[in-house]
Amino acid sequence: MARQIPRMTVAQLRAEIARRQMGLPKLQKRRAKLLRAIGALDRQIAAFGGQAERPAKRKGRPAKAAKAAKAAASSGKSLGQSIKDVLGGSRGGMRVKNIVAAVLRAGYKTAAKDFYNMVAAALRGDGFKRLGRGVYKLKAGKAAAKGGK
Prior knowledge:
Number of domains: 2
Mean pLDDT: 78
Number of helices: 7
CATH topology of the largest domain: Arc Repressor Mutant, subunit A
Shape: elongated
Number of strands: 3
Low-confidence stretches: 143-149
Radius of gyration: 28 Å
Strand content: 5-15%
């Protein structure tokens, strides 16, 4: 049916939507019946002293926040902290591509497809001063704060 949809007229599409919506209550009743059956099975399992297993989690691409947490956990530092460490060791400013290379050399792990843009976005935050186009350094008070931690 999906292959035929592009060739359908608006009236035919509306009829198809109405047909599918007509089947919705039947599917909802069937779902409710299956859930009751699953509940009964869970109670039987519990009666035998067992524990019903939860359905397996859907496998797929991890969320972005999970990716960032995973990268921070594997290297021990957040991206911002890794950049501060790199810039703290330089006298003047550094270009973004050099910061990217230094952060990766320092052991920061990432699965990002475009790590350069992640670093560039992080540099736009607090704690970094833009000296020129693509050149950044650590803000004046931040180097001393880094040493105190």
